[in-house]
Specification:
Layout lengths: L1 E2 L4 E12 L2 E6 L8 E6 L1 E19 L2 E19 L17 E4 L2 E4 L6 E4 L5 E2 L8 E5 L4 E11 L2 E11 L1 E3 L52 E3 L2 E12 L2 H4 L5 E16 L18 E9 L1
Antiparallel strand pairs: 1-2, 2-5, 3-4, 5-6, 6-12, 7-11, 8-9, 9-10, 12-13, 13-16, 14-15, 16-17, 17-18
Length: 295
């Protein structure tokens, strides 16, 4: 759709994909010499969503141009059916997105002992949950994602930037897997709200020297929450040298430029290296200067 002499353009799409016979690992008896093989299983997954793109020519006057582009995707997926004959059928989230997470439900920190309590299937609490207590509690499927780009140009100068936005849930404390392990660095987050004395109403369990003392903690929804972030993904600036400066050298389209990637992150998750990669190496910040020209 175009508005105001196509200065404002809107594009939208709706998609729906239904896939059957999913490729998955199927267990084999170990006496065959292999533990599993890849096979098509009778399972159906539906994926659907909306995609929007809005492009605007904000200013086009006196040699100055300013354009803005905004895109937004709202994806949804669901495991619709699984054959009960598939050996791992119970591990797939029927009726939920494929990225649904199964684990224990964290209840609170026991004020008397300082150890984590988890909800049981019977409605009580325990310090040692079993597989029967595990529940589907959340997923990492993006709620929406998109970005906004702006391009400015004034005579021979140009400048642009792109901000990426991602809204999804996830683990906001990447060190949970090492909680209670010796010789491991921990976030300063764990110094605040830690249980120290009987009667404390704490959000963090007591310190321990037992290796794996809180083995169930990182198998629960403790620390699982809003992992929304925005990234200044790209930024570039350039200056096109006037022809009268380069004509004598028989050079055309000579341009000085600087490009930068992964400059800054705004995130609700303050305790991981990067909300996109968790504790893995985050995308590197890269800044490039250069001169391009043609003969």
């Amino acid at each position: 759709l175009g508005f105001f002499n196509d200065r404002l353009l809107l594009t939208s799409n709706y998609y729906f994909n239904k896939t059957n016979n999913q490729l998955a690992s199927t267990a084999l008896p170990t006496n065959t010499g292999y533990t599993s093989f890849m096979d098509n299983i009778p399972a159906r997954i539906d994926m659907k969503g909306w995609e929007f793109e809005l492009t605007s020519t904000n200013i086009k006057k006196g040699g100055f141009n300013w354009k803005t582009s905004v895109n937004l995707t709202i994806p949804r997926s669901k495991v619709v059916s699984i054959s009960p004959t598939y050996t791992a059928a119970a591990t797939l989230p029927l009726g939920f997105p494929l990225s649904q997470i199964q684990g224990f439900i964290f209840d609170s920190i026991d004020p008397a002992t300082g150890v984590p309590l988890y909800k049981t299937a019977a409605g009580g609490t325990t310090t040692t949950p079993t597989l029967n207590d595990a529940q589907w509690f959340g997923n990492t499927q993006p709620k929406y994602y998109g970005g906004i780009s702006n391009d400015f140009q004034y005579k021979n100068f140009s400048f642009s930037f792109f901000i990426q936005v991602m809204s999804q849930d996830g683990y906001t404390h990447g060190t949970l897997s090492t909680f209670g392990a010796p010789n491991m660095n921990m976030s300063t987050y764990f110094l605040n709200g830690m249980w120290q004395n009987p009667g404390d109403i704490a959000t963090v369990p007591k310190a321990t020297t037992v290796n794996g003392g809180y083995a169930f903690l990182h198998q629960s929804n403790y620390g699982f929450g809003d992992n929304t972030y925005a990234k200044l993904r790209n930024m570039s600036a350039a200056y096109l040298l006037p022809n009268k400066w380069t004509k004598s050298a028989h050079i055309k389209n000579a341009k000085l430029f600087v490009n930068a990637q992964n400059l800054y992150v705004w995130s609700k998750s303050k305790y991981v290296y990067d909300p996109e990669t968790g504790l893995s190496t985050p995308p590197l910040r890269i800044i490039t200067f250069g001169l391009s020209a043609s003969l």
